[in-house]
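Single Protein Entry

Contents — chain, fold
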Amino acid sequence: MKRRDFLKGASVAAGAAAATAAASFPAPAIAQNKRELKMVTTWPKNFPGLGTGAQRFADRVTQSSDGRLTVKLYAAGELVPAFESFDAVSSGAADLYHAAEYYWQGKHKAFNFFTAVPFGLTGNEMDAWVQHGGGQALWDELAGGFNIKPLMCGNTGVQMGGWFNKEINSVEDLKGLKMRMPGLGGEVLRRLGASAVALPGGEIFPALQSGAIDATEWVGPWNDLAFGFYKVTKYYYWPGFHEPGSTLATGINKDVWESFSDADKQLVTNCALAENNSMYAEYNANNSDSLDTLLTKHGVQLREFSDDIFKAFGKASEEVLKETGETDDIAKRVYESFIEFRRKSMGWSELADGGYMAKRKMVLG
């Protein structure tokens, strides 16, 4: 037999064998390796930064896995109401959420520390604590008790102090004020005589417009411009004492997480960290221009909280944080870890970031 004829015959035989083998596998074998994951959020659909960041994370997981893990996003109210996202993921009704952990303080007060707390860590410091200061292990323990695996998945940076329908010139001006402020910042306001309420993003403007609330904080110039708060009130205060580096999170149903291969766990983790960085950069890129638009085009009046008011915020904040740390054992360990990391970080942050910014302003004006 000629060599060419032998190879041709062998090729035909191999092809027939391959066809027979393929026929022996069930038709959807490849499809069976694909999963669609439902992600619920606490944000309005496609809202700049928060909503679009959640979608970007979902798309990144889908693309990075080449479609093996397809994440379908449901905005607030599409599958479950915004504040029911945690329960949906915990129970398995949804696979993961994108939200701010302090929304879950009704489940456990220690969740506040993994978004932001008054006079807490900046965005850079939060990244350092969670990734390299023991924060992730404590967070895993806390959320794991609710059948959830948590990951950092965004940051908005230092937030503004909020929008008010009157000037706030003294602590007395806070008394009786109805303000939207979630988390431990809301408890600080209550101790100073205000009435704090937690509202999801989509409900804030109507409440402010109707007079149901007198003031609100949300995020910062970029998001505040998008929500149109300037249409209702013109007093815009800075800085925010309550959220110095607000971390957003994805919480993944723990059974779903454990079903992932090690490679897919790493893939999802990497996608979350990528969004954590991307969102933080996006806010820093957009806030300056948005603030300029608010001030020059819409006549917003920028106001700085007085030192006396900020000292009152600080005194009440330390009391609230300490009491939160006394909730139970896990809260105590989270609190102690957070406060110790804040103590260590303050010296370096003030020397490095603060020192440089002061000198840069001196030189450049």
Observations:
- The mean pLDDT is 92.
- Residues 35-156+245-284 form a domain with the D-Maltodextrin-Binding Protein; domain 2 fold (CATH 3.40.190.170).
- Residues 329-364 form the longest helix (36 residues).
- The first strand starts at residue 35 and ends at 41.
